[in-house]
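Summary of Year 1 activities. Much of the first year was spent building the evaluation harness for sequence design. The harness presents a backbone, in tokenized form, and records the residue chosen at every position. We chose the following record to illustrate the format because it has been used consistently in internal testing since the harness was completed.
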């Protein structure tokens, strides 16, 4: 195994097998199968446990499917990812029967007719994603893939609650549940699959960054077509401080957005990227200023409105077929 610098270089320049949407997860995973079991930790919460059994015939898709179910339920009872829509989809009219929380658009977005708002809600942990939230995010992307849903939309806005975007993976869950490199790779496979499918949606995706986007949260932002940032927010790829590389495909996406040299510098130095610096790097498209939730919603909607006005179904971008 090389240095962390060399590992980041590989992520920015090469793909390794087994492949999932063009992203590799290393040979340890290519000869393994994810086995799922449940351990009752308390009357209120079931905990998941990952174990790997040698099986060279299992592919990345099997890994993703089992990872989603293994992660479901891992986290606090009040953390969730919610999809807000300008309409309420009829369960009978959709082929998807998923445990997706779906409500009307939040206050301040009422003027938008063809925009969905996807909110990450775990404010006590700066909206870090628990295992359960990762599974919910995958469910929501599956719902948005349904033509009965996305044909009525132009835009999906990804944001966090409580004035914070996302602090990446919830390290408490990672510490307690992902007790091997293989298990961590399984979580990474699920998130790469989810974010790749998210990028391929026939919708304009916009990350509205407030507070901070750290680690995996910064990777989430790179999965969107556009990024707007509040004037006091910060973006930081902190993974190398922890001795790891971006595990959700964010390194390759960052490379495509800011170029190889800038991506390598941001990943290796863990630079705290200010709004002005992010705009200079073309990592973000616009800066907005907010002092409360109302002004935040105003800043977001002012950027979204032009896309919301497009005739539904007219959006097609070649980049939607990209690997990451």
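For this record, the design step produced the sequence shown next.
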């Amino acid at each position: 195994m090389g240095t962390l610098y060399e590992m980041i270089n590989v992520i920015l320049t090469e793909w390794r097998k087994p492949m999932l949407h063009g992203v590799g997860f290393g040979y340890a995973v290519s000869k393994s199968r994810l086995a799922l079991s449940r351990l009752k930790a308390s009357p209120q919460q079931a905990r998941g446990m990952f174990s790997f059994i040698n099986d060279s015939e299992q592919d990345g898709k099997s890994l993703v499917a089992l990872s989603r179910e293994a992660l479901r339920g891992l986290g606090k009872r009040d953390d969730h990812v919610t999809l807000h829509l300008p309409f309420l989809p009829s369960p009978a009219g959709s082929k998807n029967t998923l445990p997706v929380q779906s409500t009307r658009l939040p206050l301040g977005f009422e003027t938008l007719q063809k925009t969905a708002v996807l909110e990450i809600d775990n404010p006590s942990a700066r909206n870090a994603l628990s295992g359960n939230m990762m599974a919910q995010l995958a469910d929501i992307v599956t719902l948005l893939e349904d033509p009965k849903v996305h044909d009525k939309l132009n835009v999906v806005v990804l944001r966090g609650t409580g004035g914070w975007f996302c602090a990446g993976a919830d390290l408490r869950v990672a510490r307690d549940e992902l007790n091997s490199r293989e298990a961590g790779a399984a979580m990474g496979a699920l998130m790469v699959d989810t974010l790749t499918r998210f990028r391929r949606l026939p919708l304009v995706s916009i990350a509205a960054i407030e507070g901070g986007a750290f680690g995996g949260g910064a990777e989430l932002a790179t999965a969107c077509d556009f990024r707007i940032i509040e004037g006091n927010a910060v973006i930081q790829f902190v993974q190398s401080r922890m001795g790891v590389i971006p595990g959700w495909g964010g390194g390759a996406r960052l490379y495509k957005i800011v170029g190889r040299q800038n991506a390598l510098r941001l990943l290796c130095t863990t630079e705290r990227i200010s709004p002005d610096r992010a705009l200079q790097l073309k990592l973000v498209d616009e800066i907005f200023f907010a002092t409360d939730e109302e002004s935040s919603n105003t800043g977001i909607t002012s950027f979204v409105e032009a896309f919301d006005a497009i005739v539904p179904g007219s959006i097609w971008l070649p980049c939607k077929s990209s690997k990451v």
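The chain is about 35% helix and 20% strand. Quantitative recovery figures across the full test set are reported in Table 2.
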